Structure formats: C-alpha cells, structure tokens
Amino acid sequence: MAETPAEAIAHDDVCPICHLLLFDPVRTRCNHILCASCMAQWADTTALSNIIPSRLDLNLSDFSPDYVAAIHAEANCPMCRTLTTASPDTTLKTALAQRYPLTYEERRVEELALRAAVAGSGHGTEGMVILIGNKHRIDRAAENRNTHDWTWFLRCSRPDLIEEVRVSLHDSFRPPQLTLRAPPFEVHRWGWGSFTVKANVVLKEPYSWITDGNSAATRNPVITLDWTLSFEGRGNQGRVRAKVRKILEDPHDDGRASPVAWPHMEADHV
Ligand SMILES: [Zn+2]
Ligand SMILES: [Zn+2]
Q1: Looking at the CA of 75, which ligand is closest?
Q2: Is the N or the C terminus of the chain less surrounded, counting Cβ atoms within 10 Å?
C-alpha cells in the first residue's frame, strides 16, 4: 500500500466531481475547473459533432495529444448546467504539479491505470479530431482554364487508426477514384471548377466509428465526409470531432456496414 502523501490540498485545487486533486485540469467557458477525465465522463453522452467551419491556420497540434472528444464537445457544464466547452488549463496544471508533487504524481499513475483498463476492456471510447479542407491558389501560368491549383486534405489526430481514405473526385479527373493508404491524405490537382470531394474514411480492424443511431454491436468502419472545394483565397477547412471504439465482429456478419454520411457543409470564407 502506498503511503498517503502528506500534502494538504487547498479547497480550490480539488475537483468538484471526483473530490481529488485536479488532474489535467480543464476550464469551461463558464469558468468552472475540473479534471479532463471528469469532464469527459460527464460529456460522453453528448452527440457527435458535424463538420464545423474552422480557421485555415488551425492545426492538429492545437489539440491536446491526449485529446478526448468529449472534453472539447459542447456539453452542459456539470457545475452550472449551461451549454459550454472546456479547454485545458496548462498554467494551472503546471502549478498543481509543482505545488503537490507527490499527490500529482499519484493522480497521474491512477489516471494512466484507469485509461489502460478502459482501453483494454474494448469498451473504451477514443476521441479523434479530423481536419478536412482544401488549400487553393490561382495559377496564372496554367494551361487552358485550369487556373485553380488546389490541394484537398484530410488530417487526423489518430492516423494510426486509419486503414485507408477512399477519395472520389469529379468524373472528369483521371482517375476519379483514389485510395490513400498512408498520411498525408492529400490530393493535389489543377482545375477550372469547384466540386464536392467525397472521402470514405476507413478504420482499421477492430475499430468502429461511433455515430448516433448505429448500434453498439455492429462494427461501422466507414464514414463519408463530403467537402466542397473552396476557391476563395487560400482555401478553407472544417473540423470533425469523432469518436471510435473497438468492436469485435460477429463472425456471421459479412462486415459490409454501409457508410454513414455526415451532414454536408459548405465552407465559410477564411
Ligand atoms: Zn475530477
Ligand atoms: Zn459551469
């Protein structure tokens, strides 16, 4: 048995949900502070996000590597019940780790054990951020009318879970269908008109996308993300917050689940 650390925890540094020292604190827009995992657990029941228009300079590195979909998703604050989002408070995290070195380390070990247990059980939900969009520039020297130099892209915080991305371009491109098996998931072309790029994002076995309305027992390895190329300025992007889970296949199932389409979105200007 580990000895109880002799550190007295100030009231303000205790999580209002688990009543332990705050670990990986997140701050809600309504200014409540709680553990990232406590917020995640609370918000886990909220629905999956659609494609949300985002600034083009937003990078995957802007998201925590320990990203949990639920933390960033809109949820009702467990403290005051207003609809809110939470973001990591790294300043407080550093301060807590310095103020309570023993307790903070103890909390870290607990959290890791908890995460390992959840992941190992196969029931754990993992979060994923997908950025989808296109870069664009006008190529004055281009032949014919193909002056739009565009690069469609899909970036994902968990590329290790992606089996492949099947991209469908306009029929006038040769070939119109491409399968990208490793990052970067990008297609660079010249063209004269905008169209909708359709991407089927396929997860490795045994992962499944968690979507509203798909049953917990059926593995759903494919989602479809539509992106209409934006020829405004430098391009545009949107983000999707998705959740995945390991699902062990029923041996009698043919495994061909139908793709789930996300609501289509037109990009806003950057
Ligand atoms: Zn907590
Ligand atoms: Zn609140």
Answers
A1: 2
A2: N
Alpha-carbon span 39 to 32, nearest angstrom = 10
Output the CA 33–ligand 2 centroid distance in Å.
8
One-letter amino acid for residue 163 of the chain: E
Of residues 120, 29, 9, the one with CA closest to residue 74? 29
Ligand nearest to the CA of 78: 2
CATH code assigned at 100: 3.30.40.10
Q: Are residues 251 and 154 in the same domain?
A: yes
State the distance from the centre of ligand 2 to the C-alpha of 83, rounded, in angstroms. 8
Tell me how far the alpha carbon of residue 81 lies from the centroid of ligand 2, in angstroms.
6
Residue-wise pLDDT for 182-209, tens only, equals 999 999 999 999 999 999 999 999 888 8
Does residue 35 share a domain with residue 144?
Answer: no
116 with 135, same domain?
Answer: no
Mean pLDDT of 8-34: 92
Neighbours of 249 (CB within 10 A): 15
Residue 104: give the domain boundaries.
11-48+69-121
What's the domain count of the chain?
2
Residue 72 CA, ligand 2 centroid: distance in Å: 14
102 & 163 share domain: no
Model confidence band, residue 85 (pLDDT cutoffs 50, 70, 90): confident
Query: Ligand 2 centre from 176 Cα, in Å?
Result: 49
